Amino acid sequence: MDNLTYWVSFCDKLHPYRQSYYRRLSINIGNIFRLLNEFKSLKKLFEAPEDEIYNTNDKMITNFLRTWRNANLDAYNSEVKRLLDNGINIISYEDKAYPKKLKMIRDPPLVLFHRGSLMDFDNCVAIIGTRNPSDFGRQSAREISRDIAQKGYTIASGLAKGIDTGAHYGALDAGGKTIAVLGTNIETIYPKENMNLSVDITKSGALLSEMSPSQQTKKFSFVQRNRIISGISKCLLVIESGSTPGTFWQVKLALDQRCKVFVLKYRGYDEPSVRRFRELIKLGGVPFSSSEEVINHLESNSHWVRADTLTQSYITN
């Protein structure tokens, strides 16, 4: 059985438990990594005697392992072959192509589904913001993205309407590279209006998703997606935040990952917008006025390394 089959089946069965993790019902991700450390390979974990793996007080882990070990591996093997035949790459946590920075976050995805030409994730700058920006926000996203992409950085965003869309187009305007991290599975583009954009992105960049094609998008899928955007990036730029708390929580998540956050200074007098800007600064964001400020910071901190976390212990050569 192909090693990718074990990884895809493992993550497919783990996915519902990780969604509950974001609802605080909590599968212990640390225990998952301890199992991977102990057994060294998923094949060994799959084939291990029951008394070796079910000796745990974590009932959720036990239930998950039982579900996974009852999986139809032949069906998963066929699915892996179909994906590869259709130009979708599968990057497991142990793969050398797996983003190095992403391994250092608290809860990294164990598998990434990838479509596109770009396999280098070490030079990313994330640009995010509201789905309903002002004209100033929309224009700023595109121009700032273009300027940063022209310096050779890869722009990471989420393919959503508004700021994300502007960020992707800005990178393409510069003839640069951009990565869209999806909140859907790799074969589902949302919103539909960005279908053509997604095709353009893959020509020089990539689409990424941790969801297998069998998985349906849920409310928390986009929350999970956000940790990947900041997790692969040197820093995160907030162009404009909206009335919903999504940007606030994405900034908090990035700061928890020790990812530098910059917040574009608001140029206006709209009281709610001013208040949201101040909230992000109070949270830990650094105000900026131009792409040059960010570029100067990037070039003077070209050797950033995130702090160690538990997940780094499971790395195979």
Automatic annotation (TrEMBL):
SUPFAM superfamilies: MCP/YpsA-like, RuvA domain 2-like. GO terms for biological process: DNA-mediated transformation. It holds the Pfam family DNA_processg_A. Residues 90-297 form the Smf/DprA SLOG domain. Transmembrane segments: none annotated. InterPro entries: DprA, DrpA_SLOG, RuvA_2-like. It comes from the Bacteria. Belongs to the DprA/Smf family. This is DNA processing protein DprA. It comes from Psychracetigena formicireducens. The lineage of its organism: Bacteria, Bacillati, Candidatus Lithacetigenota, Candidatus Psychracetigena.
